[in-house]
């Protein structure tokens, strides 16, 4: 029997220390807003309902949430009166009466679904409240979990804690599970009688104990509950995210020579036995198929690299670059919105945009598809097994036929038929001994100048 679960994500905070016009939860980790990570982990943990409480930057946060997770309900907290108050902004979602409720923070993007599942197990076994704690290296600022024989008695906010309580290093990570059946009864009992005059969500621990409910804490790694408060914290979380993702990929069979120099996006897909050289950046929407090799200093976004393909060093794949099996894209080559079919080669100093390149075609160094007339984009089609000589400009719309040749240095403005040679350049003429005449003239000029 599966239990229903509401993920209630708090994302209304001011985020003052970010010093940013952007709401804090919209700052990105691995290319996705932090709140999107929290939404994803909620879905992965089997939450059936999602409620987001937004406030600061309401429009931006709510449009981002509805775009990525349209099933979410969004609530506005108009005043920031504390986490207990924020949760009740989503009263209508709580009233629906799911079996479990997980209160999450929108600025804690490293949370793992397995941890949320562990919390849900405690609720399934009868806990009314379950708190996610961690052992802090430096507990300053965190709420402390006050236990007696592993029974959770209270959470004391740092400001309200006694010197003795401040010595406790078991801290509140901020994530809390509530039994849906008792949630409103507990939340409605919270008051703002504390140092901050705030409604503390954490007060439900003492309230539940007083009512004789079962209350428990489970432990997570400190890194998993790490909340972002500053841009430095954002970079720390990004680094941890990247490290974990690289580790996961290498475990699955991807080789990375210098993993710390490979930057992945949350949606990057890399199949087993891919080889990644140092210094590679993945933007959104990249898939790299098995046995491909990405050489150093390459930048990829919105691209597919086919099986056994080789790109770089210094390749740039932009959105819509689709490289089939066994293709080669070499140094200082930019590819955008183009299908490069099986075995085709684009090895040096080239721009291919809005194009289709047939299988086994060879594109010479310095070839440019002139795809833009200043207002519109046009397509270049290059046939199977075609050969484009170096330093050619292909002025789109234009088609180079199957098996056709383009002479180097051509500016091709008309279609080249199948198996034809297209030449479009000035014809060469040689003037015998003319070089000697030039040298003599130059020598005479030099001598004249040195005398005067
Ligand atoms: C909170 C916990 C503390 C815990 C710490 C972990 C409480 C009272 N304290 O403290 O025990 O150790 O997190 O990081 O819960 N928010 C709103 N509306 C509000 C207030 C907060 O949406 O009115 C949101 C914030 O955007 C943030 C989250 O709730 O995402 C936590 O609020 P914050 O003020 O950062 O709580 P802490 O003081 O860090
Ligand atoms: Ca905080």
Question: How would you describe this protein?
Answer:
The chain is an alpha/beta fold and 452 residues long. The radius of gyration is 31 Å and the shape is elongated. It is built from ten helices and 34 strands. It has a 20-stranded parallel sheet that branches. A seven-stranded mixed sheet has the order 5-4-1-6-10-7-11. 22% of the residues lie in helices and 30% in strands. Strand 8 and strand 9 form a beta hairpin. The model has no long low-confidence stretch (mean pLDDT 97). It folds into three domains: 5-225, Spore Coat Polysaccharide Biosynthesis Protein SpsA, Chain A, CATH 3.90.550; 252-340, Hexapeptide repeat proteins (UDP N-Acetylglucosamine Acyltransferase, domain 1), CATH 2.160.10.10; 364-452, 3 Solenoid (UDP N-Acetylglucosamine Acyltransferase, domain 1). The longest helix has 21 residues, at 231-251. The structure holds uridine-diphosphate-N-acetylglucosamine and calcium ion.
């Amino acid at each position: 029997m599966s239990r229903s679960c509401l993920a209630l994500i708090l994302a209304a905070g001011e985020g003052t220390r970010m010093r940013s016009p952007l709401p804090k939860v919209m700052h990105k980790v691995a290319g996705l807003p932090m709140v999107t990570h929290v939404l994803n982990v909620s879905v992965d943990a089997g939450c059936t309902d999602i409620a987001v409480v937004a406030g600061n930057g309401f429009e931006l946060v709510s449009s981002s949430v509805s775009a990525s997770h349209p099933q979410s309900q969004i609530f506005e907290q108009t005043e920031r009166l504390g986490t207990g108050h924020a949760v009740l902004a989503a009263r209508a979602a709580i009233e629906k009466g799911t079996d479990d409720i997980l209160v999450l923070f929108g600025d804690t993007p490293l949370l793992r679904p397995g941890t949320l599942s562990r919390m849900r197990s405690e609720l399934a076994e009868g806990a009314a409240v379950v708190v996610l704690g961690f052992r802090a290296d430096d507990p300053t600022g965190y709420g402390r979990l006050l236990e007696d024989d592993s029974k959770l008695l209270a959470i004391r906010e740092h400001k309200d804690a006694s010197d003795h309580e401040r010595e406790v290093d078991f801290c509140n990570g901020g994530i809390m599970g509530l039994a849906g059946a008792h949630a409103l009864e507990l939340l409605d009992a919270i008051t703002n009688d504390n140092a901050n005059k705030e409604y503390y969500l954490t007060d439900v621990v003492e309230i539940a104990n007083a009512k004789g409910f079962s209350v428990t804490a489970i432990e997570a790694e400190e890194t998993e509950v790490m909340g972002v408060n500053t841009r430095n914290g954002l970079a720390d979380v990004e680094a941890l995210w990247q490290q974990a993702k690289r580790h996961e990929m290498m475990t699955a069979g991807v080789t990375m020579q210098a993993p710390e120099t490979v930057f992945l996006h949350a949606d990057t897909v890399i199949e087993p036995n891919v080889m990644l050289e140092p210094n590679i950046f993945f933007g959104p929407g990249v898939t790299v198929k098995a046995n491909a090799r990405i050489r150093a200093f390459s930048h990829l976004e919105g691209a597919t690299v086919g099986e056994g393909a080789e790109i770089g060093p210094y390749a740039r794949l932009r959105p819509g670059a689709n490289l089939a099996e066994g293709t080669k894209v070499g140094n200082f080559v930019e590819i955008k919105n183009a299908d490069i079919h099986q075995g085709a080669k684009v090895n040096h100093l080239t721009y291919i945009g809005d194009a289709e390149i047939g299988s086994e075609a060879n594109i010479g160094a310095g070839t440019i598809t002139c795809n833009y007339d200043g207002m519109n984009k046009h397509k270049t089609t290059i046939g199977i097994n075609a050969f484009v000589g170096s330093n050619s400009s292909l002025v789109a719309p234009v088609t180079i036929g199957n098996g056709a040749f383009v002479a180097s240095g051509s500016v091709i403005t008309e279609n080249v038929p199948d198996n034809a040679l297209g030449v479009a350049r000035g014809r060469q003429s040689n003037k015998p001994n003319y070089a000697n005449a030039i040298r003599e003239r130059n020598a005479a000029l030099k001598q004249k100048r040195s005398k005067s």
